[in-house]
Each structure stands twice: as structure tokens, then as C-alpha cells.
Amino acid sequence: MDIAEYVAFMAGGGRGPRGEELRRRAKDHLLASGWTFYRFAKCDGRQELRYRAPHGASYISLIVACKKFQLFSTAPPRTTARGKPSKKRAAPDCSSGVGKEIARVISPIGAENGGRKRGFGGGEDVCGPAVGNPFAGECPARRRKVRRVSALYADDALKKYAAKKKRKKASASPQSPASPPASPQSPASTAASPSRVLRPRTKDGDKAQAAAAAACQPTRARTILAVLMDKKILPPTAKLSYKRTRDGPPAKQGTVTVQGTIRCACGCGGKAFTVAEFAAHAGGCGAERPSASVYLNDGRSLSQCLVQLMRAHGGNMLPTGSPSPRARLKRRCPPELGDGDWVCSVCADFGDMLLCDCCPSTFHHGCVGLDATPQGEWFCPSCRCAVCGSSEFEPDDGEFTDKTVIYCDQCEREYHAGCIRGRGDQLECCPEGPWLCSHDCSNIFQRLQGLVGRSMPTSVEGVTFTVLRSTNLPEEEGMAAEEHGKLCAAFDVLHECFITLIEPQTRTDLSHDIVFNRESELRRLNFRGFYVVGLEKGGELITVGTLRVYGKKVAELPLIGTRFVHRRQGMCRLLINQLEKLLGELGVERLVLPAVPELLPTWTGSFGFQSMSHSDKMEIAEHTVMCFQGTTMCQKFIVGTATP
């Protein structure tokens, strides 16, 4: 074994021609086992190589790291519920002790706590989250009910992915192999920012965090022109002209500035305009899309450039799970989610969790109001028909029966097709467009859709309130491309405000998935219903939030942030006021959000929110509200102004 050979070599004095080779093999072994290496900056300016274990501890020398690795790899023998040694097949060695560690933290549950005695992945100890599929088959009663998950389990998978990504990047980069690895505080370090922890960027934090914030902060305003320049679609200082027709004479001409505006070349003194202002300055009609009438010298319009952006980044910017206009039906759990989730769907933390017998979601007993594991089958609050309360369903296999389950496109609750027909509604097949469960949800949906793409004035002069949402409608490609460009700008604002959030389950950027409405069969990662709300000033998005409205009962705002250069100007309060006004008009009862510890006094003191009690959370338990580890869920009741 590489680690043992290196430890023995160092115990013998550490001299000889094999030293460098053994060190290299030991480092490779640690990396393959989920360890990460980083450079630590000392006070005298020198940098030291540190070794971080999957459980979070760091060591200053390779020999100490190897000895700790051997210590962690020593696992006690597993026992059955009766205390006898288990005769099950041992976990794969994986050339490390990681498999044994995972086998210890995912434990079988005996009859004494109401569960079924079943190991992970079909009764065998395994070394990964995707081996075996206890969700497959027709008998959900065979599934293991409770699992114990520690932070080591998820962080190990996350860091292995980060190490693999770094190696791919290094092999494709012309940089020298001697280049130091990224710091744990660097935004490029995936393992430093798991999605379970929400970490806002601040300029008053430690030096490493401030440096990371400065490195990620865009140098220009977040306008559509800035996004096109960042993506190398629009050349800097490009010449533009406004034309009423493609072959017509230019009404006005200008030049793109590095700040993402258009500097007019007429006798107006070289004023800088946004795209809309430039079109109005040229005498354009206010009803048309300005980007469709602003042309580059090569003949392309800005609208065509935005379509090019949307198509060019289709693999990266538009996730494969983007929402479709067709109503959503409940399907079987996909194989990749067969072993269930890693964290609680309510509090996003680890521990002893209960698995739903219908979906891959997991829950702490206390988070769903249980004192012990129930006997027989158990279904989470979200997997129950809103009419009859039953969790029985027939998956979407092409047939539309009474037991087919359809989701409301606004409140996202489940309904049996037979229950819908029983209350007098006509539903013979899956609707081609969105399906809404009630008059209230229909009003909210139509109102929000009507606001998408519009700019509404606020109480602050020059600042407008806007609502954005991703769309896949091919017949509206030009409009969808404009929305996509603005969503890219909103995504950049969130990246400036928060440390990059990588979701271990999907290995994708969580902020990106929310902004672009990625769908998933795992409820806590299904972002189909999100809207992006924001404040614009001079054509630039300066404050951005992500909003989801679960009918009239509750709305959530998991992410909200303001660009550094516009902070301490009351922009966040202005956006909250606009949201409260909008939600009041829609008749929504309360707004909830997760507050990080350092901002909890601000939300509860200045913005009028209150920390949610357990009973408050149980009142909205049928809705999967986003939460992050270490945050406090807060709520604020809305003073309604809705008209019947």
C-alpha cells in the first residue's frame, strides 16, 4: 500500500533514491481518497502546502497526514442488531478507508425502532451513493426506512468531484505544473462552498474572503451589453446604429463603452445611454423591442446577438431540466436518485433521517413532527393528494388514469386526476399548457406571467422593479433571448453577492439552477416555479432576489443580494417593499427566507421578520421551502390588498 510504504520509509530515516517516488504516490493516494491540498499564506508572505482530510481537519506535513489517514482507515467490525459480527460482504476497499467510513455512518435499523433491518443498497455495504436501487420494483415496503448520514459522506463525494475537475482543468491549461492549487477560500475551490452553507461575500471579512470577492466582482455594470461583451459575442467599442428597418438609413449612431452603455455620436454631447434609452433617443417606438432595431456594422442586430448567446451556452446556461410548457405529471423515481437524498429536505442538515416511501426525499423525524419511525409505509407531506390525502399513484407511462398524479404549476401540490374529476372539473388527459388547481392559483400565475419582462416604477426616481423568468417557448425566441440575457446578468449579481454554491447531489451551481428553473424529481432541487425579481438602474441590475410563490399560503425568497457599489443605499429594503406590495396584491399570506447568523438581527430588527417556530414550519410542511445549513428560517406576514 502506498501510504504504508511511505510511512515505513520515513520511519527509517526518509533517505534514499525512492523518496520522491514514494512521496508522489502517497499524495496521489490521498487525492484519490478525497483529500485536498491547498496553499496557506503565512504572515511573512510565504506559502505552505497544507493537507485537508475529508472530515475537515488540516495537517501541515505529508507524514502527519499519512499517519492520520491510516488512523481513519482503521474501522471496527460491523455488528448486527444482536451484537454479533456481521456476515455481510465487506465494503470495497477503494484503495483507501473511505468505503469503510461510509459503511459506518449509514447504518441498518433494527426492529427496536420500528424500521426494517436492511443495509444500504440492497443489504450490502457499499462505497458510493449510487450503488443499488432500493426504490426500483413494485414493492416499496422492501425499502430501508432510516439512514444515518454524516457530513463526511457528502463532503467526500464533493471533494472527489472537485479534485477531478481540478485535474481536468490542469491538463487542459498551459500553466506550469508547479502552479499552486487554489486556496480553499477561492471561488474556484468547489469543496470550500458546499450548497448546505450559505455564505455571503462581504468586504469587511477576512483578507482571503475579501480577495475572493474582489476577484469575482465584475468590472463593468451588469447590463445586456456587458453580458454580451463578457461572452465574447459583442466586441468592445463596437459601432452601433439604430435603424427602423434593416436596410434603412441609420437614425442614430453610437459606440459601445466598457461600462456596458452606448455613447451617442450625434450632437447631444456624447451622452451614454442604455439600449432602450438609445432607441428612444433615436425616435424609436416604445412598444417595440429596442434590441431588434439596434444593429452592428456586420449586419447583426442586438436581438440576434442575444439569440446567439442563448444557443451558444445552451449546454451550460440552460440546464437540461429547464421547465417545459406542458403540465407536469408524477413519474417513478429515476435510478440516479434511487438511494435517496443526502440531507433533510426541511433543514438541509445530516443525521438520522426517514425516507419517504414515494419519493427520494429524506427528513429528520422532528422536522416532520414524528417522535419515532412509524410502522409500515410512510409518505412525506408533499407526496399526498391535496383532495383525498392518499399517496397512491400510477406513474406517467403514457396512460392518464384516475390515479395519475398532476402537479399544480403554481402551488406545486399533488392531485389525483380522479379527485379532480370528482369535484366537477374536466381533466381527461394531460393539459398541453400549465395546469392550475384553483381560481386563486390561476390568478397568481396569470398575474406573475403578465409581469415577466416588464419594468415598473418604484418610489426611488430612476430605479425600476422587474420580474424575469426562463422560458423555452420556440415561437418567442427573440423575447426569450432577451430574458435569457437579463437572467445571465442576474446570475452574475448573485455570484458577486454569494460564495459559489455547489450542490453535491447534482454537482451544479445552485444559484444557476434556481435562476434558470432547473427541474428535478428530488423536491428540494426542483426549481421550476422560481422567478427572478430585481431592481434596475440605468439599464443595470443592481439588486436581485429569487422568488417562488406557493399559492396564497406562502412565498419564499431564498437568495437576495445587492452589488457592492450600490450597497448602503436602501436598495434591499426597496426590493422587499416592492415584493410585499406585490404579494399583498396577490393575496399571499406570508413571506419566508433563510437568514444567515450575521444578518439575522437585521432581518428581525429592521425588516420586521420573525424567527419561525417549529409549529410555524409545520403549517407550511406540504411545501418544500429552501433552507441552508446554519441559517434561521424567518417569516413576515403580509398585509393583503387583494381584491376578490
As for the CATH topology of the largest domain, it is Aminopeptidase
Report the end-to-end length measured between terminal Cα atoms.
73 Å
CATH H-level superfamily title of the largest domain: Gcn5-related N-acetyltransferase (GNAT)
Q: Could you give a short account of the major beta sheet?
A: 8 strands, mixed
What is the CATH C-level name of the largest domain? Alpha Beta
Number of domains: 4
Shape: globular
Percentage beta strand: 15-25%
- Which percent range fits the helix content? 25-40%
Largest sheet: spatial strand order: 14-15-18-19-20-21-23-22
Number of strands: 23
Question: How many alpha or pi helices?
Answer: 17
Task: Identify low-pLDDT runs.
Answer: 75-144, 150-154, 171-195, 205-211, 213-218, 315-322
Q: Structural class, please?
A: alpha+beta
The CATH level-2 architecture of the largest domain is identified as 3-Layer(aba) Sandwich
**Global mean pLDDT:** 74
Radius of gyration: 27 Å
